[in-house]
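Quiz preparation item.
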């Protein structure tokens, strides 16, 4: 079946959603090594890697079956993001948060002074994340859209440009103004970002 190699991820996803179960097997086989290596590079344990890998595809299947997939041909980055979030969940549950991490939260908090959080620091950090999300919602819609795509969805400015229908320079400008406005909002609301 030479055809399997030429079918794009988006077509396979579409076929799977329409009931063609074998399409998911092709997708898993196609991306298995890269995803497994990615997870292992974070957790450094083969058994945990296998668990996270399985949990990732359980979540992928549930999302596809609910019809909530809308990544428009960006299947692998979407699956990697799910795996990344599950790795973060694993570290949270085992109280082994790494000192450096890139979550869906605002990147300004990605470096913690120490790798472990006591209950007080955890509450403070959760409050900061909540405050920042509230501030993002105060941004003008165009700036908010670009900031969310860039920071939370980890999209390149080229991808943002394609998704929003504006030039790369316009996307860069919107991001710049979003960051300027975030700083103003932080000052206005007197939010302390570091503890």
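Solution:
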């Amino acid at each position: 079946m030479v055809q399997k190699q030429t079918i794009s991820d988006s077509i396979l996803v579409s076929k799977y959603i329409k009931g063609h179960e074998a399409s998911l097997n092709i997708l898993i086989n196609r991306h298995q090594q890269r995803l497994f290596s990615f997870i292992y590079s974070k957790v450094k344990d083969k058994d945990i890697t296998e668990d996270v890998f399985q949990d990732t595809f359980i979540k992928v299947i549930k999302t596809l079956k609910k019809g909530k997939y809308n990544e428009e041909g960006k299947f692998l980055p979407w699956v990697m993001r799910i795996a990344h979030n599950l790795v973060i969940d694993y570290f949270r549950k085992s109280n082994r948060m790494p000192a450096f991490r890139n979550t869906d939260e605002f990147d300004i908090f990605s470096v913690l002074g120490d790798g472990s959080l006591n209950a007080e620091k955890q509450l403070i950090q959760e409050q900061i994340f909540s405050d920042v999300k509230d501030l993002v919602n105060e941004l003008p819609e165009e700036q908010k859209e670009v900031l969310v795509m860039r920071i939370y969805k980890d999209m390149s400015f080229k991808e943002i440009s394609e998704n929003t229908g504006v030039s790369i320079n316009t996307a860069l400008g919107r991001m710049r103004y979003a960051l300027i406005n975030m700083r103003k909002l932080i000052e206005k609301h007197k939010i302390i970002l570091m503890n």
